[in-house]
Amino acid sequence: MDDRSETPRRDTTARDVTWALAALTYLGFLALLTLTPRPWGREVDQVPWGVLNPAAWLSSATWTTGTAREFVLNILLFVPAGLLAARFRGAWGLGAAVLLTGAVEVAQIPLANRLSDPRDIVANVGGALVGLALGAASRSGAPPPPPTGRATADPSAPEGDRRSMY
C-alpha cells in the first residue's frame, strides 16, 4: 500500500479545543438567553407558526414594532456566532450562522413568552455577518500555517540550486 495516497490526518490542537469550548459556552449562553422564560414574563402576541408563516414576513406590524435597542442587541448577540462560524471556509460559515439563527427562531415558536419574529432573523443574520467579516479580517492578517512536512523549493535560490527550505 502506498502511504502517500492517504490523506494526512490533522491532530487536535489546543486551539481546536479552545474553539470547541468557546462554541459550547456561547451556545449554552445563547440557549439560556433565547429559549428560557424571560424574567419580566410578558405575554407575546405572535402570528401562528411564527417565522414559518409567510404572513409574519408580510405583516407591516412585523417591521414597525419593536425597538431599535432590541434590534441592536440581537445583532450583538450573534456576532460571536459569526466569529465561530468563520472557522468554516466560504459559504459553510454563512450557512452555519443562518442555520443557527433560524433554529433559535423556530425553537421559540412553541414557547409561551418568546416571540418567533422575522425582525430577529434579520438582526441575527446581520450580527453573524459582522462576526464572519471580523473573522475573515483577522484570518487575512494571520501568519501562514506551519509547514505540513512536505519539502518545497526555496524560490529565492538560483535556478540550478533549489534545495528544500524545510
TrEMBL record:
Pfam families in the cross-refs: VanZ
- Region of interest (Disordered), ranges: 136-166
Q: Which organism is it from?
A: Isoptericola haloaureus
Q: What is this protein called?
A: VanZ family protein
Q: Which residues cross the membrane?
A: 17-35, 55-79, 91-109
Which residue ranges does the record assign to the VanZ-like domain? 24-134
Q: Which UniProt keywords apply?
A: Membrane, Transmembrane, Transmembrane helix
Task: Enumerate the InterPro entries for this protein.
Answer: VanZ-like
